[in-house]
Amino acid sequence: MFKNGDRFQKIYTQGVVTVSEIWVDTITGVQYLFHKDGNGAGFTPLLGADGKPVISREGLEP
After folding, report:
1. What is the pLDDT of residues 9-29, one digit of tens each?
2. Could you tell me whether strands 8-14 and 40-45 are parallel, antiparallel, or unpaired per DSSP bridges?
3. Which residues pair with 47 in a beta bridge?
């Protein structure tokens, strides 16, 4: 899944002016939400219903 060697890979995006994206740390598998609206932006880990970070196992570097 992750082939170009970058630490963070974007796996989802929506919007043009107001943008929401999901990024994955290819080392740990933790997913992050990036949201931008106008001049404001934020980057935070995605949390599951149990309050723990959402982790992708597929495509992680060894």
Report:
1. 999 999 999 999 999 999 999
2. unpaired
3. 53
